[in-house]
Design goal:
336 residues, six-stranded parallel sheet, two-stranded parallel ribbon, 11% strand, globular, binds zinc ion
Length: 336
């Protein structure tokens, strides 16, 4: 723990420099989008990411959902929650009630597949089973609320690694009335959360604070980075879609994240409103075995070269500290 803390010090200056760049970027670019920036908040792996690592999964999941919905409420930010049936089963009785708050008002339940399986290793019939069995709990919940399931997001954002499979997967979604959920901002929140959970278990409050600060610094940089790349590729900033996981780190930092968006001139919209923008009218065309954010997909489909190496990774000390936890992260695959 001590050595990890010391190893982190040289990164402080770098983080500060990058934060200054991010702030300059926000200031310099806001005028390029006269209608104002918008962002939709989305959360994956409901009712709780990796519930099996918690000693009291139901209590921790309940508190996490409560904190996240309360922060969204404070900022009047609509949000979409992507559910895995397997996480409901592993939390056990009472888990479905954690979804109630996500099924009313400006909040919406969506499908993230039954078992969080990777579409790259499934054939089309298995992908179809993931979609259909993913509706086991949430299907009746949304119908009883007079709603329908509108969005599906593939685990790891893997849409199928070949053109044939991707086309087939898109047809399966369409046949069941789904739109493919896009995402444009990735903060590697799962990397920071693994470290944060270790610091919580160790009751190391200094480390918890350091991780939260590092995460918010990284988030500010990523918001600016992706806004710049979207502008470069599309010539304008489409509504952004923030990809987060439902975890303890986001529960404790969501207010601060929403404040970062507000400070950068963003207004909060629903996923449906965001994806009404023409940028999302076409599903990605060229297949990839990775799960990149949409700017990289838009760039490939348009033959525009972008340098993904300019995107910063989370600080090494955070990843190293979190790596001591053996539970598999929700998205261990390279992003681009
Ligand atoms: Zn996921």
């Amino acid at each position: 723990m001590r050595s990890a803390a010391q190893a982190g010090r040289p990164f402080a200056a770098m983080r500060m420099a990058a934060l200054i760049v991010a702030v300059m970027f926000f200031g310099g670019c806001a005028h390029l989008n006269p209608a104002g920036r918008t962002v939709a908040m989305t959360f994956d792996d409901l009712p709780m990411t990796n519930p099996e690592r918690d000693a009291q999964p139901l209590a921790i999941a309940a508190e996490t959902n409560r904190q996240i919905l309360a922060a969204l409420e404070r900022y009047r930010a609509p949000a979409t929650g992507f559910v895995n049936e397997i996480h409901i089963t592993s939390i056990g009785p009472g888990a479905d009630q954690l979804l109630t708050g996500w099924n009313q008002g400006e909040y919406e339940l969506a499908n993230h597949g039954a078992t969080h399986a990777d579409a790259n290793v499934l054939d089309l019939p298995a992908i179809e089973r993931e979609i259909i069995q993913g509706e086991t709990t949430i299907g009746p919940l949304v119908r009883n609320a007079g709603r329908s399931l509108r969005f599906f997001r593939f685990p790891y954002n893997h849409l199928g690694e070949t053109a044939e499979k991707q086309t087939g997967a898109m047809a399966l979604l369409k046949a069941r009335g789904y739109q493919l959920a896009a995402s444009t901002i990735d903060t590697s929140d799962y990397v920071f959360d693994k470290a944060f959970v270790r610091a919580l278990d160790a009751r190391d409050s200094d480390m918890q604070s350091r991780i939260k600060r590092a995460y918010l610094d990284h988030t500010a940089k990523q918001i600016a980075y992706y806004a710049g790349l979207n502008l470069q590729v599309l010539g304008y900033e489409p509504p952004a879609i923030m990809l987060l996981h439902i975890n303890r780190l986001n529960a404790e930092t969501l207010d601060a994240q929403l404040a970062l968006f507000r400070k950068a001139g963003y207004r909060f919209v629903s996923l449906a409103e965001a994806q009404a923008d023409p940028a999302y009218a076409q599903a990605p065309r060229l297949p990839t075995r990775f799960g990149p954010m949409w700017c990289y997909r838009w760039a490939r489909d348009r033959g525009i070269r972008v340098d993904g190496r300019l995107e910063e990774e989370p600080p090494a000390w955070v990843a190293d500290y979190g790596a001591a936890i053996s539970v598999e992260s929700p998205a261990p695959i390279p992003r681009r």
